[in-house]
Amino acid sequence: MNLIVGATGLVGGEVCRQLAASGSATMALVRRTSSPERIAQLTQDGVETAIADLTDPPSLRAACRGVTRIVSTASSTMSRQPGDSIDTVDRQGQLNLIDAAEAAGVEHFVLISFPPVDIEFPLQGAKRAVEDRLRRSRMTHTILQPTCFIEVWLSPALGFDAANAQVRIYGAGTSRTSWISFRDVASFAIAALTGSRAMNQIIRLGGPDARSPLEVVREVERLLGRPITVEHVPEEALRAQFDGSSDPLQRSFAALMLYYARGDVIDMSDAQRMLGLPRLTSVAEYRQSVLGLAG
User: What residues form DSSP beta bridges with 149?
Assistant: First the structure.
């Protein structure tokens, strides 16, 4: 039995959908306060649910009974749940889950994290502490570190509103990033569940091509046939936001924006060797799905 933690989120929900579609026995960990619509979608996809909470170790121990493999995508960064924080979810909650999984005899644990960033901030501290605990556990493990999700960072939610020709760019916009789709991250997580070469490995993940934000803007301008208004948030402003914030989540968001501004090109040769390389979603394909424009 596979247990997916973070199943009502972006990546976790896609992991559930793909596993269920393949006929693999899958159970989603949900909370009593989870979105009824998202729970209904999991049920419709053919996924069982187990009620538990990362802050409640006894419920985690019960949920882990009979489970052989876990994928954890849980994070507080996009949560709307009261009381969720980097400490309760990304750090202590994940540590509670690893303890419960280890005690239940889970064989393989796949953790979704992110690549190292050259700034110390609360979310990164939590992720690295969990990675370290997982490496010291008795379970085989795979730690996946995907770079920036296309659907998040190149979306209107973060100011990249290409459809309305208004785009916010963090930094100069000239540094390239290997943008990756959350659907591809889900596919890699599933490949890691059974890939023997991926056991006890840390694997960085990126998309099939590296683009700078300004390159994406110019491509969209060419397809739309009109200019796009670009607003730059200078690195100095991001650094000031980072230095001036006492809230752990806001400080972490500022650090991640600095990471975006500086870019991150991922060499996928290790991922290909250990996990295989599924057909990856390019920035152009994402752009086409959003704008309905090919080219």
Answer: 180
> Which tops the pLDDT comparison, 114 or 209?
114
Q: Which secondary-structure segment (H or E) carries 96? A: helix 92-104
Task: Give the model's pLDDT for residue 120.
Answer: 96
Query: Which pLDDT score is estimated for 196?
Result: 84
Strands (E), the chain: 2-5, 26-30, 48-51, 69-72, 108-112, 140-146, 160-161, 166-170, 201-205, 229-233
Q: Which residues contact 223 (CB under 8 A, 6 or more apart)?
A: 287, 291, 293, 295
Structure token digits, residue 93: 């909650």
Confidence category of residue 290, pLDDT binned at 50, 70, 90: confident
CB 83 within 8 A of CB 92: no
Distances (CA, A) of 3 to 30, 97, 103, 108: 11, 11, 15, 11
Distance in angstroms (rounded) separating the CA atoms of residues 165 and 234: 20
Q: Identity (one letter) of the amino acid at 153?
A: W
> At residue 256, what are phi and psi to the nearest 5 degrees?
-65, -35
Cβ contacts of 183 within 8 Å, gap of 6 or more:
14, 281
CB atoms within 10 A of CB 139: 19
- Provide φ and ψ at 192, rounded to 5°: -70, -25
Q: Is 27 helix (H, G, I), strand (E, B) or coil?
A: strand
